Amino acid sequence: MSAKVPFGPVGIIDIGSNSVRLVVYGGTERVPSVLFNEKVMAGLGRSLADEGRMDDEAVAMALEALARFRIVTKRIGVKRLRTVATAAVRDAANGPEFLAAVAKLGLKPALLSGEEEAVASAHGVLSAFPTARGVVADLGGGSLELAGVARGGIANVVSLPLGVLRVGPEPDAEAIAAHIDKAIAGTRLGGAAKGAGLYLVGGSFRSIAQLEMQLTGHPLPMVHAHRLHLEQLGPMADYVEQSKNSEIQTFGNISSLRVPHLPAAIAILEQLIRRLQPGRVLVSAYGLREGLLYRDLSERKRREDPLLAAALDVGRRLGRFGDHGALLDGWIAPLFKADGMAMSRLRLAACLMGDIAWNAHPDFRAERAVDLAVHGNFVGIDTHGRAMLGRALFTAFGGVSGFDEGLSSLLSDKDHHRAECWGRAIRLAQRLSAGTADLLKRTSIRIEKKTIILNVPERRQAMVSEAVQKRLDQLSEAMGRKNEVRYA
């Protein structure tokens, strides 16, 4: 894996049943960063159920937003712009007329079929969860797309007319169940999620996660990779039913325009869970737009780990002397042979970001490192993993006490100790090498019996200063070992 030069800016305009959105991406191909994000809740699909067409007010609002997006993308300098339309435009009698109006604005809209929409959303989930196995469910305003995923592939995709706008504020559970049963009959979707995963895509599903995390007091309310507690769905439905919209808006970042759709989203999710019987239900921040970008990648690029690709990019941009995070991880790895695959991956991510806070005020480098690690725009990681990265980098940048109590609650005592030791080892390596790759390559470290052995070339004895010895002592104390410096 190597750091990639910026590939953007590239833009995607998503004309959905509920919202019309422009997202401009930059950064690296594998883990694109959002440079600009704007949406208008035009509600193109709100009148479909009754009238079979998009109403004039919604169309006017959408076209006004699209005209602005066209101007904005030109000024930003977007190199490639893709415009896609989904369920509302697909199903409306005046859909062709609307697309013609969009084309007159200078855009080139592509109308996605339900199956194409399902595949794009599934690609988005695979981009964020490379080992995803089960069913992807993308809930929009006008439709619900389902797709089976396993081993990086996609199969059995279906599209249902079950968007939150169509279901409405008073959902009919029996009608929802009948739609789902009909759609999955004759496919393998009925058993694809059993004991596996149900991956939720779409703003309404994310709002459910946001509400649950706030009601349960989650210490790090980030929806991506959040695992829903299924026993909370019933109480949440009751809460939404009994509460005024203004009260619900005080919880998290739930948009006031999403609140009226919560009953429909919860009802649809409840029926999906009853019929698919997933082993776990996870929320994905990546969906259709990210899936369109992921689909364009080479197979080699797709195979890159999204967390490590993002950590590499952050480390490359914020580090002092170039990227050598993988070298740093290889240097400290002999101290942590008991780390399994999952922990070794997190340790590598910490090393890739091991120099990201050097330019902060010395008194706040630890806090800055925690903020960047914990709140970074990463995928391929859950809140436990974020807390591990935060704890490791807190120590690596000199933090001693005062680590965030909420983050601490996500970690076991064993995890705390492991991450602290990673941080101590990173801190030693950075002081010994002055943050450079060349000096680090000339030394090595290992455990011999109960002693940490630091190997330094005979002619480089001056590298082991008082400050280096102090950090070696701190690492040894944290790991319950003695230490020795050997010159050869």
Quick take:
The protein has helices at residues 48-51, 56-76, 87-91, 95-104, 114-128, 164-167, 173-184, 189-192, 203-215, 233-242, 245-248, 262-276, 288-295, 299-302, 306-318, 325-332, 341-352, 365-374, 383-396, 405-408, 413-433, 437-441, 466-479; strands spanning 10-15, 20-27, 32-40, 80-85, 109-111, 134-139, 144-150, 153-160, 197-201, 280-283, 444-448, 451-456, 482-487. The chain has 488 residues and is α/β, with parallel strands linked by helices.
Task: Give your account of this protein's structure.
The protein is an alpha/beta fold. It has three domains: 10-111, Nucleotidyltransferase, domain 5; 115-290, Nucleotidyltransferase, domain 5; 305-487, Hypothetical protein af1432 (Orthogonal Bundle). It has helices at 48-51, 56-76, 87-91, 95-104, 114-128, 164-167, 173-184, 189-192, 203-215, 233-242, 245-248, 262-276, 288-295, 299-302, 306-318, 325-332, 341-352, 365-374, 383-396, 405-408, 413-433, 437-441, 466-479; strands spanning 10-15, 20-27, 32-40, 80-85, 109-111, 134-139, 144-150, 153-160, 197-201, 280-283, 444-448, 451-456, 482-487.
Total domains: 3
- CATH homology superfamily name of the largest domain: Hypothetical protein af1432
Write down the overall mean pLDDT.
Answer: 93
- pLDDT under 50 segments (min length 5)? 1-5
| CATH architecture term of the largest domain | Orthogonal Bundle
Kindly estimate the percentage of residues that lie in beta strands according to DSSP: 15-25%
**Computed Rg:** 25 Å
User: Rough shape?
Assistant: elongated
Main beta-sheet annotation:
5 strands, mixed
* Structural class based on helices, strands and sheet pairing: alpha/beta
Number of DSSP helices? 23
CATH topology of the largest domain: Hypothetical protein af1432
How many beta strands in the DSSP annotation?
A: 13
CATH class descriptor name of the largest domain: Mainly Alpha
Helix content: 40-55%
Distance between the termini: 33 Å
